[in-house]
Amino acid sequence: MRRFFSSGKGTLLSRRIVPGTSVLAFILGAWPVAGHSEGEAEFSERMRMAARLGALEEMETCCRSVLAESPDDLKARAYLGASQALSELSEGSTAWRREALVGLAMGLSGEMAEALQAARKALVAGAPSSGALVFVQRLARLAARSGDVPEVERFCRRWAAEEVEDEWPHLLLAHVYEAEGDVGKARVPLLQALSLAPMNPTCHVVLGWMDMGRLPLDEVEMRFRQALHFDSQDCGALAGLAEVERVRGRPEDALKMAHDSVRGGGPQAHGRHVLAEILVQMGKPGEAQRQYEAILRLDPLDASALHRLAVLQELQGIEAEASWRRFLQVEAHSSPRAWLARNGLVELDTQKLPWSGRQPAWSPDGRKLVMVRERDGSDRIVIQPMDSPTDALEVKLGLTGRIGSVCWSPDGRLLAMDVSEGGGGMEGIYLKDLTNDRPAWRLVESPALFPRFSPGGLQILWSVRDPPGCQVTDLAGETVLRRTPVSAADWSPDGSLIVGAQEYSGQRSDLWVYRLERGKAVRRLTREHRNFMPRYHPLGHAIVFCRTEPGGVTGWCAASCDAAGSPVAVMRPPGTDCPGAFAWSPEGQQGVIQPGGTEDLWQVRWGGLSPKPFELAVDLNAGRLTVTVQNLASRSAQADVSFRVYDQESFQIQAWRAEGRPAFIPGNNAHSWGEFIEPEAMVRGHTARVEAVRSDGLRSVLLWRMPSARD
Q1: Cis amide leading into 679 (omega within 30)
Q2: Is the pLDDT of residue 127 over 70?
Q3: How far apart, in whole angstroms, are the C-alpha atoms of residue 427 and residue 397?
Q4: Which of 255, 395, 687, 704 has its CA 20 to 30 A from that of 299?
């Protein structure tokens, strides 16, 4: 499966450069970062005036005075890091060095036009054929994040008109268009640059990285080898070949090329990005983390390094919140990567599970999966413990036919499933009581699909296809909500809303949120392409769904529940473009996907700064369970706290709601509740799901494994 957050093309572009010109990366990387809150105008003015005079010592003094009051100020740290990197290089003229630092200072003070001019002078003085690749890479990121693409386009066109045989303004435009996501448009100026300078290895390197993931690896490899033909020590080409070998699954072969790229790249970060990903592939996350830390010592504004550092820390069980927040300081808050990080939807790790099945669903205590498997021409339901691949249990249903989807009740005692193509009039939605061996019984007759238990477990949401719609039925089969025009719907965590897909044609369907008590539409979440199979995140702040775009490309996207912003791509099912199935774990930090057309199952772990309106602390002492809720917001809130205890069979054995009503918690304050736990519940391996729900519906969820009474 392709990782959505790999180091990526934009991070890995590099080449061996004349000492000093590589630090032009710092010029563009600093602009989108907000400055310190006090004295920002004074700082900008001092940097601007010092830069116009070329007073390098004054600029450094200014930054050090800022850091004395605000040690984490990213602008000042970025300038000093660039200055340190330049001072360590003794080769060549100092003219390019002065212009590079002047450009950086102009960028920090908000003077983009003057920064561009200084950067161009630095490139000319420092041999542009050696340093321009890093320059255009950073400039493209700036333009994409700040919305200054038109201004950069004008700058490049003037440059190209003045130097008609110069390939560098065309390379800059290519990167700007690629950063906007239009690779087809980016190839036009890139090929023009290649026609102007066919012997420039940089052009071949850029084209190779642009084609990574779009063309066969053999063709991409040829691009990098062509660059090495013109410069056998080109570090960008070496990094590209290392990435090709890594993608091919040959990390040992890739390792030497990556080391060669790092040794030849001076203060560049690009070779280290590739090296770090290779180390991750070789199972050495600690060594990879050190590579990213080395990058950030000289460039604290490298968003990709900050992002990957946070991911690696989470994978190693290291507290990563500070790293995530530093990443969000650097990355534009409207960017897709920033949105995912802020909503806890960063893909940390994806692993293939050692068993197979269809339509997976988690048990309410998060320790088991239920899935569908075919045997002897008929479907069966199997319960699979997550920590024991050999202990699968087949559920005796007393049914024949095709099972479309399965859902587990919140108390762990019932399964709901839809059955079709069984013959004998058995089609419909069935319930199976897991506490006994009696056959499943029919709740709703055909046509009925996609059953989903309500959060309280007393109602079932189900869908029909012709005409598309859904309705709600209680466990006695009585209608609670008549048909709404959305199908394959899901409940919000508090049970007040449902989200489903409304079809307009075979190529277009949008997601709509409906309020359950009125059956009325609340908002539309999507406005293009074909969107279907929405699933609320257990925290209730986001929705993950399947999307098919023109060309048949299918992947999973996420959207805010309040329809703020456009949906963001999350992941692609491995090995197929067909839609499959996705299931959240109860705490929302893991998921299982089944790619369409297969019975393979993949476990995905998620990270990032998921919303935490409340911080939960749980303590069990002498049979008393104490839940402490810290209100993290500055404003006061009403909190409703409850927990459920599950035994080894995933059955609910105890439930409790604090004081039977919401409690008032002032902003930035805490409140505690306590309840005694039944002795039989205090057995090793039992779990408790604790929920603190704010009055506006936001919540924190904690699945907690209880210690045994002996402990």
Answers
A1: no
A2: no
A3: 14
A4: 255
